[in-house]
Amino acid sequence: MMAAAMIGVYRPGTSLLHRLPAGLKLFGLLLFTTALLVWRAPTTVAIGLAIIICLYALAGYSPRVLLTQVWPLRWIVVLLVPFQWWLGGWRSAVAIVGTLILAVAAAGLVSLTTRIVDLLAVLDRVLSPLRRVGVDPERISLLIALSIRVVPVMLDLVNTVREARRARGAERSLRAFATPVVVRTVGYSQRLGDALIARGIDD
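^ that's the sequence the OP posted. Answer follows.
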């Protein structure tokens, strides 16, 4: 539970998506991203976008929450769109960049509506056959969960520091940005390390 508190972006709620089993949501995420990759086209992206918007609304989240999940990709999008347009035309640019954005939005929705303890439990069950070959499923599932959770947490940390710098009128100060980010990142890492040790993962 302590680890979950350190790395979670879960937002408690009573929506249908919140009540769905974690395994079903992960399976849906797999199907959704697979469909985006297999039928990669502007039409698929448009349909996927409509689905994502409806699912966020069903979970009780505003369009702003959806935008928050994909906003960190803005610079990647700015660079990737013209490059893909040049390589394969506008359809290719829309399909590839749209697929990336929708996949991140879908993964973000799973994180927002699923407690990390439930996510870990599902991954433990899925990976349990690996015990036969001497692999610890709990460690692997924790690593996967950390990979899913740490990125949005760190992005949120950076955005918080950026907003604080802007409120102080120090938007152009690199020091006012870098120093708090480093300090908070180190503090977060220490708390996360303590949480992992508490789970018995200290080697």
